[in-house]
Amino acid sequence: MEIPSKYEPNRIEEHWYDYWMKNRFFHSKPDDREPYTIVIPPPNVTGVLHMGHMLNNTIQDVLIRKARLQGKNACWVPGMDHASIATEAKVVDKLKQKGISKSDLTREEFLKHAWAWTDEYGGVILEQLKKLGCSCDWERTKFTMDDDMSASVIKVFVDLYEKGLIYRGFRMVNWDPEAKTTLSDEEVNYEERQGLLYHLAYGIEGSDEKVTIATTRPETILGDTAICINPNDERYIHLRGKKAIVPICGRVIPIIEDEYVDIEFGTGCLKVTPAHDENDKNLGDKHNLEVVDIFNADASLNSYGLHYKGKDRFAVRKEIAKELDEKGHLVKTEQHINKVGTSERTKAVIEPRLSDQWFLKMENLAKPALDAVLNTGDIKLFPKKFENTYRHWMENIRDWNISRQLWWGQQIPAFYYGEGKDDFVVAESPEKALEKARSKSQDPNLGFEDLNQDSDVLDTWFSSWLWPISVFGGIMEPNNEEVNYYYPTNDLVTGPDILFFWVARMIIAGYEFKGERPYENVYLTGLVRDKQRRKMSKSLGNSPDALKLIENYGADAVRVGLLLSSAAGNDLMFDEALCQQGKNFANKIWNAFRLIKGWETAKIEQPEAAKIGLEWYAAKFDRTLAEIEDHYSKYRISDALMAIYKLVWDDFCSWLLEIVKPSYQKPIDEGTLAKVIYLFEQNLKLLHPFMPFLTEEIWQHIANRTTEEALCVATWPKMGKSDATLISDFDFATEIVSGIRNIRKEKNIPNKEVLELFELNPEDKPDRMDALIVKLGNISGIKSTDIAMDGTLSFRVKSNEYFIPIAGAIDVKAEIEKINEELAYTKGFLKSVQKKLSNERFVSNAPQQVVDIERKKAADAEAKIETLEKSLVSLG
Fold it and tell me: What is the DSSP letter of 767?
């Protein structure tokens, strides 16, 4: 096979990916090997590859490829999440562009459009992951809306309902007016925003008196049904039992008393709007207040909004403030910072809204999941710092609102058959529902036409919390061969932003439905940020095109660039220069390979330097392998890569190849070349999880391989016992070589010129390294001496001093002239510093730190002068 002069990733990446796929190296089925299983955090079906996906999936691929090389039955299950809110919004928007409104369609018609959209756009991201080199078992690809996955969700809902853990309740919920659905508490982001505090005057019925109340939302006065005062507030004792009049709408409302009101906050009076605030709803229930909902589903005002009917809430805020001012109800406004809840999906400002919803009781379900992480250690979080976040969420867990007012998703399996509040049944199919309804109603004449299924769908997370179980069919067939073999999975790699959304809920589901953990380790990656520490996002325009990066640098280079700066749990400051660094590394490896393949062999004796060099590298490899395994065990993937990077770049390319390289146009002995190639292959195995394409390309060029001998399914290196003394001796030798090279550089002595080396205290140096020093330093030999030598240049390594005679090696006259110039400059510099230090005013008034710096300058100059004067003496 001809070896190209340059490494061209675009030429080879598709070829090797197709090769791996054709030979089904990524496919797994149960056998007698140890399983190693990862389930992908399913990206949204609407998604495209971004930097966060790149980081997360590269880490997963590193782990799965290493496990495969270790001989484990590696199974990485890919898939997608149907993303109810995001996908439905996309479909609605596309229909709108065609002049079709969702409200004009039946549920079945809309779902046809949703599936058509999914078939056309869904799965794009999975194809893009292949470009990155992800070695998923694509034959196992799952979608949360697949028939078997949906059946699992419905079965779980019925099971939890029958256990009394799911219930229907009329509650205050988070309402997304853009998506027109409720959200769970975890899907609401809170952010501080600058707004206004409006002080409004309410009239007291039967008098001219007014009471002032402060609010950030003047439009909600139209839903006020009471004013509340603290019974201990002496300022308002006279208002007991009286009634107030709501401005503009004129509604007469009671003045109630409750210690809930903070006397010190605002005016000490609280307007109560039970339909639009959770705390107000609690007060309303306690005091039996009327509930007046002023909003439509899209947060425009309804008929309670009077002349503002049909207008958007924020437009009304401005208009009603103006009207209140004109009618004398607005006392004043002042700047106010308020925490505003926004939808995690649509970014719309959330409205609290009273609604009938389905809830899952979480308190008892959460206990085994809390215990697994914080007490028994069955599940470990990396980094450990996230345990506190996990504890906080799980100890303060609230019931999970699992219903969504959407059509895209698993429809809630509740069937209504009458007008009563409890006239419904929960069942896995209409047939079972009818049977239950007839039994519950004691009406044998009920038919399918009498059943109406709940129109809501389940929260998307209610399907993905089953992911590690359901992808192996473990809900529908709890003891099937696959779930028994692959579950629990080994590692989960995901972002800390979904630690509660997904990670904690999967743990809860694992203990509830399988009686054991869903995985052993959770590796939480950081966020990918730009150089200014900003989170990468489309809106900021600071996120590079992931596929363009792969096109420009190659997948391996991008993977290396991402991982070199990606410590677990810490944010990655992404800089495109990191990809260039990865590309440079790939080129370094490629050029090393070309150098080795270019050597001619002969049946000649192995040089002593090569023998020592090969023994040293084998020892260094074993030590680094132990270090790498330790990093892997602690999920320090970035550190593992850096250890390999240094091993290959510094130890293999810069030292070993230099040691074994034959002289110009001379052959290399067969034994050395065979050992170098073997060690290079060992390097490729360590590199393969990080740089799969490059390493497979080189591996296949090294020798004619059968399919079974592909690097993708090769054997991970076995750890040997590292010779620490050999490594230490080599380090000593390389310091000597560096000393020789520094003198050559400083004195412009050509590398081809052979030098002599004398050593003081030779007993401290390991003699077995002499051949190596002779070759790398290009010296005639190492001789010992008992005294410091004149007419030499010297350097020190530990307690040993080395001397290089310079007669004939340098221009002595020019060197003396150069040293005299430097000596004169240094003496002048020392004089100026000493003058400053002899100035009492300077020493007394300057900060101590500044004085110390000047004293150090003087000491350094004195030491340099001494060295230069010694050099002059040695030059004669």
Answer: G
